[in-house]
Amino acid sequence: MVRGLYTAASGMVSQQQRMDSISNNLANVNTTGYKRENLLTESFDSVLTIKINDVGSIGMRDEAIGRMTLGITASETYTDYSQGTLTSTSNPLNVALNGEGFIAVTMIDAEGNQTEVFTRDGSFVRTPDGYLSTNDGNFIQGEEGLILIPSGETIIDKEGKIYVDNNYIDTIRVVDFDNKQTLEKLGSNLYAANENATITEFKGQVVQNALEGSNVNTVREMVDLITLSRTYQANQVVMKSFDSTLEKAVNSIGKV
Prior knowledge:
eight-stranded antiparallel β-sheet; 2 domains; alpha+beta; single chain; 21 strands; three-stranded antiparallel β-sheet; 2 helices
């Protein structure tokens, strides 16, 4: 009986974790370049269930009933890197990636340490010093280092080459990865590559005057939210039933 109580509890915990993931997706439905997350769950390893000291035709013995699991647990968070919808803008410093890939970014902390990170958010700005950066002040990498853009008419072609008044400035460094699930989300639309990530060639196109929207489908997320809410409530009912039965076992049967 208590085993069933823990099984129902594990189901409630996993559904709560899924709810947090879906809530985060819905909160970022309008975030440029955001990629939805999905929490994957799996059951615990099955174990052999044995009825101890069972009374049978040959006397007292242990009888195998079968195999069962003791609930489920969250195994990992899967990120959906599918393409979001591209929306046209009037800002020449806005770019979107049409295809798989990431823009290389240099993040500098308060102590001056530089870290290479990656993003799909192409809503760039020009700093007071003239450098191309993200809205959060992280510098966009070029093939020749940080990109310094003078004032003038800015053109960015499909290969990421930047021209100001027809003068070549630099090329935005865009890369891809052989296994994107090795990337770690840092927040603020930034990703970090660990030692298991292998950089590959970017085979898409850079689109100027455009931004990539989130790939979150609001209707799908709401349906998933309703489904998990019902699952959570079902597990809650099971826990209440076990609790009621245990209460009777303690307060009623114990008096006999």
